[in-house]
Amino acid sequence: MSSLEFINELYNTHTTSLKGLEEIIKDESNCDYLFEAADKTRRKYSKQEVHLKALIEISNICTKTCFYCGLRQANKVVNRYKIEPDDIINYAKEAAQVGYKTIVLQSGESNIFSDDDMCKILRGIKKFGVQITLSLGEKSFEQYKAYKEAGANRYLLRIETTDEKLYKRFHPGMSLDNRIRCLQDLKTLGYETGSGLLVGLPDTNPEILAKDLMFLKKFDFDMVGIGPFIPADNTPLSNEKGGSVHMAIKLIAITRLLLPNINIPATTAIETIDPNEGRKKALKSGANVIMPSITNGKYQDLYRLYPKKFYIKSDVSETYTKFDNLLFSIGDKVSLENGDSMRFNQRLK
Ligand code: SAH
Ligand code: SF4
């Protein structure tokens, strides 16, 4: 079968073989066709609406040493911060007042917030009637359970790559098994569970990427975030080439066809490499979520997973309006629903 036929198979049945995925990834001649199929599928399943979710980067302290990340513990150049719990709750309140239906709390992986503090933050935010997504890294079942009981209902933890050798190489002291254990725990606990990929890490190839996509399909995630790897200063991968926006968007489009009713963000890393068109292209190729950072500017500059990380130097309300306008310009609008993926709602029925 040709890659065109594999795309058609994916579009019609939402599945294909590993070989089919690999062919689509490799072949550059049918990309526009693929993007259009993904756009049609997204519009069919999520109307003309895009979820805006407010991201607060609550701490850049991290005990891990992921090879690609500017926040890795071994990077001594970073000024580390932690936002005080009351301030986090106040930022969330402002976001809720402006109209955000979901607050996303992200940080490096550490226990700088005790579990009691985290639960206090979650209970405080929950009072504003919003949904809460966490992206705090690997935790124990008991911790995930406590956060859930305190009000968190979604969790993002990217698998990054499913290739055992590459995973080990880029994540010293960590394991693919534990990553998968975390994702399984989150699902068991009833979280709306999200994962995703870092695209363009050294020594990946279409065969590995096809397996990564199959993993996302088999795990049946509710959300999938895919972004290009951007080389970060003071990391072991600082001199590498990095991933391309094109490949990230291609994988987003394939993911939309594999999992038609999930939530897929147009990621910040895409916008960072291509500030003018990146997010628009992703939104026209299957993405249906934007997560603008609303973290106060003094912290934004310090939350550098990678250099020149895109953010808008404006207040929470201006940021909302900017994205509202961007969506209008491509024939979409901000969703006023709570931001659950359709996949998740159907699973509950
Ligand atoms: N510590 C948590 C959450 C923060 S990192 C965690 O690791 O899950 C969030 C995401 O940032 C990671 O999943 C990774 O895919 C992405 N990231 C880290 N460094 C990056 C880089 N150099 N370029 C692009 N994305 C990066
Ligand atoms: Fe820490 Fe997450 Fe960066 Fe890894 S990717 S070093 S866990 S912040």
UniProtKB/TrEMBL annotation:
Binding site for S-adenosyl-L-methionine: E160, R179
Keyword annotations: 4Fe-4S, Iron, Iron-sulfur, Metal-binding, S-adenosyl-L-methionine
Cofactor note: Binds 1 [4Fe-4S] cluster. The cluster is coordinated with 3 cysteines and an exchangeable S-adenosyl-L-methionine.
A Gene Ontology molecular function term of the record: transferase activity
GO biological process: sulfur compound biosynthetic process; water-soluble vitamin biosynthetic process
Entry annotated with the keyword Iron: yes
Entry keyword Nucleus: no
Binding annotation for (3R)-3-methyl-D-ornithine: S135
InterPro entries, per the entry: Aldolase_TIM, BATS_dom, Elp3/MiaA/NifB-like_rSAM, FeFe-hyd_HydE_rSAM, HydE/PylB-like, rSAM, rSAM_sf
Cofactor(s) this protein requires: [4Fe-4S] cluster; [2Fe-2S] cluster
Protein residues bound to [4Fe-4S] cluster: C62, C66, C69
Stored SMART domains: BATS, Elp3
PANTHER family given in the database record: 3-METHYLORNITHINE SYNTHASE, BIOTIN SYNTHASE
Record-given protein name: [FeFe] hydrogenase H-cluster radical SAM maturase HydE
